């Protein structure tokens, strides 16, 4: 009889120990899961904070670039950005390279027209300026990727300033065109900087 009691007590003690160990293991596993969950949440928060920091830096960089542009380019950008944009994602660099090729082709024709204008007499300038205005309208109608929109705007601003310069010269050979020339150089510089950033 005593042996039965001892066995029963031993079994009860063993079951108690097993139950206690199981409970402790379950609690430990729960704590580990909670800690893992907290760690993952913390990592996600840190990653989000880093993403926000990168986005903020990009916004600040874009703002600095915008402020460095000629006022005409800023006005063109503001007008273009206020227009409804097609819901297209440009993730392939080939899109930007194709659009750069279009802009470069127009820029080549513009450079030729500009060279002709610089060697043309005041009397013959209207026809050349008309051609230049036609090229500028082509750029305006061109649809490019978001990254190249600012390059496009600076190209248009350079064209507009150069056309204004020739119009002034046509009406008065002694007109001060130095400010317009500076605007041309400034806009062209921004055009090449943005083109390089977007496609190189």
Q: Any overview of this molecule?
A:
- The structure is a single chain.
- The chain is mostly helical.
- The chain has two domains: 1-68; 70-83 and 90-199.
- Helices cover 85% and strands 0% of the residues.
- The chain has helices at residues 2-68, 71-82, 93-118, 125-141, 146-171, 178-199.
- Helix 2 (71-82) crosses helix 5 (146-171), helix 3 (93-118) packs parallel to helix 5 and helix 5 packs antiparallel against helix 6.
- The longest helix is centred in the first third of the chain and has 67 residues, at 2-68.
> Structural class of the helix and strand makeup?
mainly alpha
The residue fraction in helices comes out at over 70%
Through-space gap between termini:
92 Å
Percentage of residues in DSSP E strands: under 5%
Number of strands: 0
Order of helices and strands: HHHHHH
Which sheet architecture does the biggest sheet show?
Answer: none
* Overall mean pLDDT: 84
- Parts with pLDDT < 50 across at least 5 consecutive residues: none
Number of helices: 6
The Rg value, from CA coordinates, equals: 35 Å
Shape: rod-shaped
- Total number of domains: 2
Quickly list its features:
rod-shaped; 6 helices; 200 residues; mainly alpha
How would you briefly describe this protein structure?
The protein is 85% helix and 0% strand. By secondary structure, it is mainly alpha-helical. The chain is rod-shaped and about 130 Å long.
């Amino acid at each position: 009889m005593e042996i039965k009691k001892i066995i029963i007590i031993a079994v009860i003690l063993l079951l108690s120990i097993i139950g206690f160990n199981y409970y402790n293991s379950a609690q430990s596993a729960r704590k580990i899961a909670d800690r893992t969950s907290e760690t993952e949440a913390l990592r996600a928060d840190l990653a989000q904070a880093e993403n926000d920091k990168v986005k903020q830096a990009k916004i600040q960089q874009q703002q600095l670039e915008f402020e460095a542009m000629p006022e005409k380019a800023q006005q063109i950008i503001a007008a273009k950005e206020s227009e409804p944009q097609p819901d297209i994602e440009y993730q392939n660099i080939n899109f930007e390279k194709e659009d750069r090729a279009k802009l470069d082709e127009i820029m080549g024709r513009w450079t030729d027209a500009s060279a002709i204008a610089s060697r043309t007499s005041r009397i013959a300038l209207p026809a050349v300026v008309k051609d230049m205005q036609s090229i500028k309208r082509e750029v305006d109608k061109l649809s490019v990727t978001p990254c190249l929109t600012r390059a496009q705007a600076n190209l248009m601003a350079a064209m507009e300033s150069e056309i204004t310069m020739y119009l002034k010269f046509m009406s008065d050979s002694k007109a001060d065109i130095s400010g317009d020339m500076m605007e041309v150089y400034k806009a062209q510089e921004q055009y090449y900087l943005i083109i390089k950033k977007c496609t190189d």
